[in-house]
Amino acid sequence: QVQLVESGGGLVQAGGSLRLSCAASGRTFNTYAMGWFRQAPGKEREFVAGITWGGRSIDYADSVKGRFTISRDNPKNMMYLQMNSLKPEDTAVYYCAADKDGRATTPTNKYEYDYWGRGTQVTVSS
Question: pLDDT tens digits for 31-79?
Fold first, then answer.
């Protein structure tokens, strides 16, 4: 059992920044790969960034490379997504996810994740 809660979403102008946080609880959190996904209205939920439990494998969607940074702090049971140079197309509900399977590399398919938060809204205005 893992519980995930996102926070940090909001309204920001294009070019601005936000930092999302994911607070996790569970017996084996430190062994889980973690990821961020986003979903805009009428679109599929898409991979944004992922990180393995030890932080040795990190992956980003091409659309956010160079702008977003994923990190985690296992002793605090926290994961973060620093989002810089935000664009209107970044507008979406952002979800924190955890994969219990102990992969050495970050999964990028939403169906490979086992636990999800309820999401936090990010809106980027022009």
Answer: 789 999 999 999 999 999 999 988 889 999 999 999 999 999 988 989 9
Write the DSSP string, 15-72: T--EEEEEEEEETTGGGSEEEEEEE-TTS--EEEEEE-TTSS-EEE-TTTTTTEEEEE
CA gap 18, 38 in Å, rounded: 14
Instruction: Please classify residue 95 by burial: count the beta carbons closer than 10 Å to its beta carbon, then call 0-12 exposed, 13-18 middle and 19+ buried.
Output: buried
Compute the distance between CA of residue 122 and CA of residue 70 in angstroms, rounded to an integer: 16
Bridge partner residues of 47 (DSSP): 37
